[in-house]
Amino acid sequence: MEVKDWSYEAFPEFCREIAESRRVPTTGEEMGVEILRDVAYATRGDVELHLQILLPANRELTRARQAIKAMGAKIRAASFPCLVYVQGSAWQKQKCTRDLPQLAQLARRGVVVAVVEYRDSSMASHPAQVEDALAAVRFMIAHAKEYDVAAKKIVLGGNSSGGHTAMFACITPDEKGELLPANVRGVIDWYGAVSLMHEDGYPTTENNLTAESPEGKLMGGVDLRKHPELRRIGSFTEQIDEETPLPPALIVHGTKDRMVNCELSAELHERLLELGHASQLVLVEGADHGGTEFFSEELVDIYERFIRTCTSH
Hints:
Elements: E1 32-44, E2 47-57, H1 59-71, E3 80-86, H2 100-107, E4 112-116, H3 128-142, E5 149-159, H4 161-169, E6 184-190, H5 214-218, H6 228-233, E7 249-254, H7 262-274, E8 279-284, H8 297-310
Parallel strand pairs: 3-4, 3-5, 5-6, 6-7, 7-8
Antiparallel strand pairs: 1-2, 2-4
Helix pairs in contact: 3-4
């Protein structure tokens, strides 16, 4: 065969009949996932923060992206909704690759997923993590074409402490003093640590609300039992009212969560409805604090439907 710079269209397909072989037809539209590791989105002092980005991929998208990159053009190969996902960690050092295999199920369905690394509580106290999530949203909007994102179709999400961060990001002004509901069309809270008001909010945390607890470190290394005002500041449910501009919320929690009491999500859902905000609550029967059961086919259907509904207008 002649050695040259073959185009895909011109390259001759292998057609020889082989005994005891099987040919499987393809269309080029079979969906997979491309991962972009450690994409820097912000610098805080000497700390560089990163995103792990999952891109929907198939044969045609991959070829288009390669061509666009070769041309140096600033255009999209496609235009997908985007989930900006804050990885939970009890506000401590994150493992930002932990949920990528599960989140890839959404990417395969045509949702760009950007997993956010934030400054942990040993570096900075609340609301630094929220500021980082907002910076990640701004980055994905600014680089929408580069990552095949529809800039006005952003959904925020997060699990555990990341759920706390994601919910707060919906009500916290960014560095320009602006709120983000115009770009953030929805928020998904997976078993979020959204309130510090409950004495039994974290059933397996022996040092609950002390200065050494995850929530105590988040709020500056203080004994929250002596600072009810800080507990309110760090509790999303205490920071909203009827006038708060909130996007629709999807709240997901396991009914046997030993780390974050399911009551926190139930209370959040009831509070949102009471104030006239849009909220859906999904209780995952028998589920603990996270796990593969949160990405069953039925639940991924629910997440995808929520994202597409929120970003459809």
